[in-house]
Amino acid sequence: MAMLPGTGTTFRMLDEPVPGAKLAATYDARAEAYRAWYLQDGDIVRPSVDEGVDALRTHMPELIPTYESLVRDVADHDPLAARMFTLWKPPGAAIACSQAVLQGGSRGSRLARNYDYPAELMDGVILRSSFTQRQVIGVTDVLWGLCDGMNDRGLAVSLTFGGRATMGEGFGVPIVVRYLLETCDTVEDARGVLLRIPIAHTHNLTIADADGHVITAYLNPDRAPSFRRLPIAVNHQWAVESWDPVLAESTLQREWWLLRLLDDPDVDHDRFLSAFLVPPLYSLAHDVGRGTVYTAAYDPTEGDITYVWPTSRVGLRFDSFTDGEHEVTYPPSPASL
After folding, report:
1. Rounded-to-integer distance, Cα 117 and Cα 115, Å
2. Alpha-carbon distance values, 242 to 125, 238, 239 (Å)
3. Do the beta carbons of residue 115 and residue 126 sit within 8 Å?
4. Disulfide engineering: 240 pairs with which of 114, 236, 297, 332, CB 3.0-4.6 Å?
5. Is 263 buried (19+), middle (13-18) or exposed (0-12) by CB count in 10 A?
């Protein structure tokens, strides 16, 4: 169901080093929504728990202890959650997001992104965790996957939909974002991991590190991964292949706008982030499930993280993160005025 104009949502900041009571409460509140999402195409098309766990053990063994804790301590051994949390061959989703990296300057690089999605379907959780050897702060998806985030080594990663309705033998990209942030320190580390991880759907990842390196990865279930030094990702890859004419037009418009923005020598960190809060990068289409639900900025060199909305913002750091809630009201779409 689409949002009514002028309505909003609540984002929650949760500090939980390992899965425990806070994630359990989040799961309990969203269990039915997760179930509806995971079984939308029927139970038979989703893999067995053994398939998913075998895939995790093969490709992401470092995550197995956290996965087991999620099943045991968060979902109380629920069989469906045990399948879902592997994020092996999950349902797909088309999300019209934009992201780019402003490089250089006295403050280092800044990765900024807009996440366009139905607000009622997202977790709405910004989580600080220490699942492995790194602290990670990011916006969760399916409880422990990530739409975007940064680790305490200064690696930042963000995803967008890649523009093709493909499906294959692989992982949902949110768990891949989590894995990169749990195991990698640099862009080059991440590139090596992406060469060996199978992906279920078509997605783009933009990755930046504390040394100023940037890469955009084009990931597909039916094509080998490819990489560009282009610090921009919208909703196509080397060419527009979308079946949706609205998305096809929008992705080209937003790419052009980002290229123009990065080419402007007067654009600094603040002006760069502000550009994400107005069209065409900011989407007002909340009434049809394509509105921008949050804007994030990750500064790998300085370690600053900022979540922004048109009338408010939340600033976070690894050394100053506390639990809390942030109420957001989205602006009405032009059609509702």
Report:
1. 6
2. 30, 12, 9
3. no
4. 236
5. exposed
Beta carbons of 35 and 119 less than 8 angstroms apart: no
CA angle in degrees (0–180, nearest 5) for 214-217-221: 165
- CATH 3.60.60.10 for domain 94-321, yes or no, is yes
| pLDDT tens per residue across span 44-54 | 999 999 999 99
Instruction: Map out the domains of the chain as residue ranges.
Output: 94-321
Transcribe 138-159 into DSSP letters.
Answer: EEEETTTEEEEEEETTS-EEEE
| Residue 228 contacts residue 203 (beta carbons within 8 Å) | no
3-class secondary-structure state, position 185: coil
Q: Contact at 8 Å (CB) between 116 and 95?
A: yes
Residue that is written with structure tokens 């629920």 in the block: 78
| Cβ–Cβ under 8 Å, residues 187 and 214 | yes
Task: State how far the Cα of 212 lies from the Cα of 101, in Å rounded to an integer.
Answer: 10
Condensed to tens digits (0 to 9), the pLDDT of residues 132-167 reads: 999 999 999 999 999 999 999 999 999 999 999 999
Nearest Cα to Cα of residue 162 among 80, 86, 217: 217
Strands 110-116 and 312-316: unpaired
The amino acid occupying position 312 is S
